[in-house]
Amino acid sequence: MGNIAPNLAYHYWALGIKPANKTEAEDPLIMIPGTEFEPEKEIEHDEDQGHTGSATLNMGMDRIKAESSPTFQDKARYQQGWEDYFYLLYGDVTGPVPAVATAAKAKKYTFAVNVAAPADPPLCTLYNGYAKTADDAYVYDNCMLNELEISFKNDESMTVKPSFVADYPLLNQTNPARVVPTKKVKIRPGQTILYYADTTDVITDANKDDFAIPCVLEGNIKINHNAESEPCAGDLFGVQSKNMGVRESEGGFSVPWTDATKGIEAEYETGATDGTQVSEEPLRKQIMIESIGPKIETVAGEDVFYKTKILIPDVTITKAESPQSGDERKSIDVEFTINDEGDASFMNVEIITELAALHIGEVEAPPSP
Question: What is the pLDDT of residue 234?
């Protein structure tokens, strides 16, 4: 009799952020309805070799390290991880506070590096469940966010791809509960605008249209902490200590080549939108990416919308060029690295949402003596 293997689509994952000093795994506080999950599990072996008088022999293998680097991809979904990823990136948050005075539903979160008192990155627990059975979940504990990649296109919803360094997962665990918000909102096509300005400019709601790049085709930001993990004597095999590396931050965008945008290429090469001679000076700019979604509520006659604003105050443009042959649309591809001189946050993020609180667990009270 033939057997039917259940489908991979029964896999799903969930996340819970661990409060400071919590040692046990956090509960699955929100389900992440993503499309791809890569466990990146590795058990490292070392050959046991020796000379026994006849030849060099491989006498066996020793296990020396077990770790994982889980990665998943999803749409940028408010209340389903989107706000949490930035807390995991920065380790610090201001809010939630009312988005405007007396707002009942709209909450504002502000994320930035606390330069005066840098925070340690928080840890989280990831669950990869399998809904076809009861106890086939993988639990990845002590996950530290290593990379965060955000991508958008003019005809696709914004996507987010977080990558972690983590302990080796526990197997045969109980499937997590599928906790979902009652209102589902994501960053859709056409909601994202990119603004491009000099580093000395101040971009405000009143003047931001002056800096808007028309018809951005696609764009991305990638933050990489270059984190590593290693075992420590005395820990259980598979438990890893995490170490932050040197942060690398970069991004890019693509726009059609038009009269309104062709100056981007000339400014990169010459230092001026109408320049003719290549410049020896690097081009530094600031970039703001803003996505405005559906209305949350109206407060005192003012409509308050879902919003994500990412301000990068200082970037170095490393590429701005367009093809000079072919049959396709002529466009300009721009690449940049994010500068960080240590006196201010390298990137500032403001989110307006209906999420009442980040998905951070509570420290259990110690038992009474």
Answer: 83
Contacts of 276 (CB under 8 A, 6+ apart): 270
Contact 355, 83 (CB under 8 A): yes
Tell me the average pLDDT across 233-247: 88
Task: Using alpha carbons, select from 31, 34, 14, 245 the residue that is nearest to residue 141.
Answer: 14
Amino acid at 229: S
Non-local CB neighbours of 212 within 8 Å, separated by 6+ positions: 193, 194, 195
CA distance 332 to 321: 5
CB 159 within 8 A of CB 76: yes
Nearest to 166 by CA among 239, 232, 244: 239
Q: What's the chain look like in SS3?
A: CCCCCCCHHHEEEEEEECCCCCCCCCCCCEEECCCEEECCEEEEEEEEEEECCCCEEEEEEEEEEEEECCEEEEECEECCCHHHHHHHHHCCCEEEEECCCCCCCCEEEEECCCCCCCCCCCEEEEEEEECCCCCCEEEEEEEEEEEEEEEEECCEEEEEEEEEEEECCEEEECCCCCCCCCCCEECCCCCEEEEEEECCCCCCCCCHHHHECCCCCEEEEEEECCCEEECCCCCCCCCCEEECCCCEEEEEEEEECCCCCCHHHHHHHHCCCCCCCCCCCCEEEEEEEEEEEEEEEEECCEEEEEEEEEEEEEEEEEEEECCCCCCCCCEEEEEEEECCCCCCCCCEEEEEECCCCCCECCCCCCCCC
- Residue 201 binned pLDDT confidence (cut-offs 50, 70, 90): very high
At residue 107, what is the residue type? K
Please, are residues 265 and 320 in contact by the beta-carbon 8 Å criterion?
Answer: yes
Euclidean distance between CA atoms 262 and 274, whole angstroms: 10
Residue-wise pLDDT tens digits, 119-143? 888 999 999 999 888 899 999 999 9
pTM: 0.93
pLDDT tens sequence across 11-58: 899 999 999 889 999 999 999 988 899 999 999 998 888 877 777 678
